[in-house]
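Appendix C: a fully annotated inverse folding record. The material below is reproduced so that readers can follow the format used throughout the book. The structure is listed first as tokens, followed by the designed sequence.
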């Protein structure tokens, strides 16, 4: 330890006593001399000790900075939520050119609002436990306003002689996006396998029938009856393949402003003859002053035709179907199709819309799956409520033009 302060103060005491000896003719070695010299020695020792601590603190801080700057990962030091040091990797990540651009700014300024309370609780935990805490993710902002995901670990340190929090982490935006892409790819492959197995199963049944009747044609005289059955089974295969091709086929939908009342009236006109033949009455109940919607007209007509057809098939003994259209919430419109059919078991409702899962004897499930896909593309919802022997209610919720669609052009990709 450097003792320059101690030596200087003792020398001052000696010089002062010498001055008194020469000019005031006082004795050199007196009680005052020993007392002042002792005080000078103690004060000097404390002064040298404080300087030594300060020097070590500065050296420690410089060592911290050199170590932090050498790390390839982003590192920053905060005190009372203010940035006191940031390494080069962190400067680059946040989009700053120099350290001065960030010094003194609150770390909360770089955190998305919904994550700030999480960070504050995190800092409280760090100060309380005084040990490294597990990693956590934040949604952060760069200086240019762009958003990224940041995974960070933090611990309490002494920086510049005071307590501070050191945080080290990495930008995981690409990692998360890649994980999401892999999950989506995995889900698509699983769906493709499921659909392929379903198609093979659905097509094999009519093919077996066709094969059997063709063999009968060789020996039978009732060829006309058998031909009709074979043609019927071929039509069924064509229908299955047609429904399947609708799903993966890329299409671009052009959205236009539509009146839901006119669209539904057109659909009911198309299906009305079929409903009367099945002894089914379709009643419509519209709210007054319904807002307009933005949609692809033909796609929505396909959805409502499919849903009405399903409702009719669920009512083999006839009855009535109610179509209720009303404004549900601000910016949303509700279309309910309520039948008096046989109903759907509760445990099966969650699986409706999956390919080749259906409650119909000869259904494929692809029609309802297409409905879900179209409504999802319109940024809407399709909900099913049902009770056995009481009937089923299918509710379609669509955004109105007061709540613009998030997707004005929809691409259905493989």
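Designed amino acids, in order:
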């Amino acid at each position: 330890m450097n003792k320059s302060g101690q030596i200087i103060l003792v020398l001052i005491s000696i010089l002062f006593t010498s001055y008194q000896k020469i000019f005031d003719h006082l004795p050199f070695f007196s009680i005052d001399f020993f007392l002042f010299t002792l005080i000078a020695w103690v004060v000097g020792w404390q002064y040298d000790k404080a300087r030594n601590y300060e020097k070590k603190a500065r050296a420690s801080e410089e060592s911290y900075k050199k170590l932090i700057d050498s790390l390839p990962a982003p590192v920053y030091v905060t005190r009372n939520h203010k940035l006191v040091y940031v390494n080069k990797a962190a400067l680059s990540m946040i989009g700053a050119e120099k350290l001065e651009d960030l010094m003194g700014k609150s770390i909360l300024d770089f955190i998305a609002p919904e994550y700030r309370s999480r960070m504050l609780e995190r800092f409280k935990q760090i100060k309380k436990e005084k040990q490294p805490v597990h990693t956590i993710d934040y949604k952060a902002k760069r200086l240019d306003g762009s958003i990224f995901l940041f995974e960070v670990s933090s611990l309490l340190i002494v920086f510049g002689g005071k307590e501070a929090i050191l945080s080290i982490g990495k930008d995981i935006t690409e990692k998360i996006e890649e994980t999401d892409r892999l999950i989506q790819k995995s889900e698509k492959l699983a769906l493709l396998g499921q659909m392929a197995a379903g198609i093979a199963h659905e097509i094999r049944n009519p093919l077996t029938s066709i094969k059997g009747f063709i063999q009968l044609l060789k020996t039978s005289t009732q060829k006309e009856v058998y031909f009709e059955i074979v043609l019927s089974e071929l039509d069924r295969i064509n229908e299955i393949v047609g429904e399947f091709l609708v799903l993966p086929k890329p299409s671009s939908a052009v959205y236009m402003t539509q009146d839901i009342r006119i669209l539904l009236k057109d659909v009911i006109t198309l299906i009305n003859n079929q409903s009367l033949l099945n002894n089914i009455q379709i009643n419509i109940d519209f709210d007054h002053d319904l807002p307009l919607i933005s949609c692809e007209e033909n796609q929505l007509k396909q959805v409502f035709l499919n849903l009405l057809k399903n409702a009719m098939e669920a009512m083999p003994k006839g009855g009535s179907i109610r179509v209720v259209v009303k404004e549900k919430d601000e910016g949303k419109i509700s279309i309910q199709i309520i039948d008096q059919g046989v109903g759907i078991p509760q445990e099966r409702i969650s699986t409706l819309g999956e390919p080749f899962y259906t409650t119909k004897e000869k259904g494929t499930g692809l029609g309802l799956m297409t409905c879900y896909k179209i409504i999802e593309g319109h940024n809407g919802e399709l909900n099913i409520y049902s009770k056995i022997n009481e009937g089923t209610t299918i509710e379609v919720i669509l955004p109105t033009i007061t709540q613009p669609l998030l997707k004005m052009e929809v691409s259905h990709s493989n």
